[in-house]
Amino acid sequence: MKLLETFYLGRKMFMPMVSILWINYNSMHIINIIKESLNSLIHLEYPSYEIIVVDNGSIDGSREAIEEHLKFVGSMQKVKFIKLKRNLGFTGGVNAAYRLRNAESKYVAIVNNDAIPYPDYLRKLVFFMERHDDVGAVQGIVLKMSDTSKIDSAGMFIDDTINVYSPFSGKYADILCKPIYVSYVEGTMPLYRVDSIKRSLKDNNTMYITAGFAYYLEDVFLSLMFWNQGYRCVVLPVITGEHYREATTKKFASQIGLSYYALRNRIALLYMTNSKKKKKVFLKYLRRLFISKGNFQKRKIILNALLDGIHLGKELIRKYGIIDIYKAKLFRIPYD
User: Fold this and answer.
1) Which tens digit of pLDDT belongs to each residue from 219-232?
2) 189 near 244, Cβ under 8 Å?
3) 113-148 residues labelled b (16+ CB within 10 A) or e (exposed)
4) Do residues 93 and 56 touch, judged by C-beta distance below 8 A?
5) Burial 162-184 (b: 16+ CB within 10 A, else e)
6) What are the phi and psi torsion angles at 316 (to 5°)?
7) Averaged pLDDT for residues 207-236
8) What is d(CA 334, CA 77) in angstroms, rounded to the nearest whole number?
9) What is the pLDDT of residues 260-291, one digit of tens each?
10) What pTM, to 2 d.p., does this model score?
11) What residue ranges define each of the domains in the chain, with the CATH number in brackets?
């Protein structure tokens, strides 16, 4: 089937099993949004799905608050609740949930704990995937919770230096009128085909590669693997929910060392690719290391991220091989 063919969302059809993965970590500061997110999942207009909640070792009382809320709304029989003893990072939490998915699940969805899905979001995404076997991942338009006339997420692009672009963020929601290919579906509210994950990672128990991208670019890696296996990543012109962006990561960015992970993971992923521009990127950061006016701590982060990123890239190449970045839908700009 062609990607841009008309798709009809109201027609009745068989709806396969979906496992929805929802990860929590120290979210007491936004507990009302957390509860609303869970309520929305519990009342989705979809006949066959499960919710797998993972608490990533929270110590602020949010784990207990979530458990009490689920008991209060009477949904514990519909929810698998996993309580990890320590924080395994977002990817570790996702993989813990992924391993416990229903064996019949054809798709897995991720919903961020600060995102509010709309009742029909899952039905719309599954309907499209059922008619496009060459699509590995899909998402719709996610709106800003603070201004629901504007887009928070509508897919993402990278260039061949692994710079990330979000060209639709902040734009009005009607800017998209047809499905589009993107470099990767963003991790707020995506839907993935389980067979695509298995074929791309050659592993029944891994969805996001924990050893590599614990906090950043995990969704980029998976989507690039999809493109290399012949699958597409698509954004649909349908509204699927709202998002209170970075409600948790903003609070803990310095604690988890997000600036380090952001650079290390970019270097590792770039090292894995056949990008014609990766040497220029490495040289740019080496120059920054020696001529930057930043303090010692910033220089140390850059040095460690470069060394660790190259080492990680080598390890991942041994496991997954070289990624042909030019098979993906890239954002094309000249490199300065």
Assistant:
1) 999 999 999 999 99
2) no
3) bbbbbbebbbbbbbbbbeebeebbbbbbbbbbbeee
4) yes
5) bebebebbeeebeebeebbbbbb
6) -70, -30
7) 89
8) 53
9) 888 999 999 999 999 999 999 999 998 888 87
10) 0.90
11) 18-249 (3.90.550.10), 250-324 (no CATH)
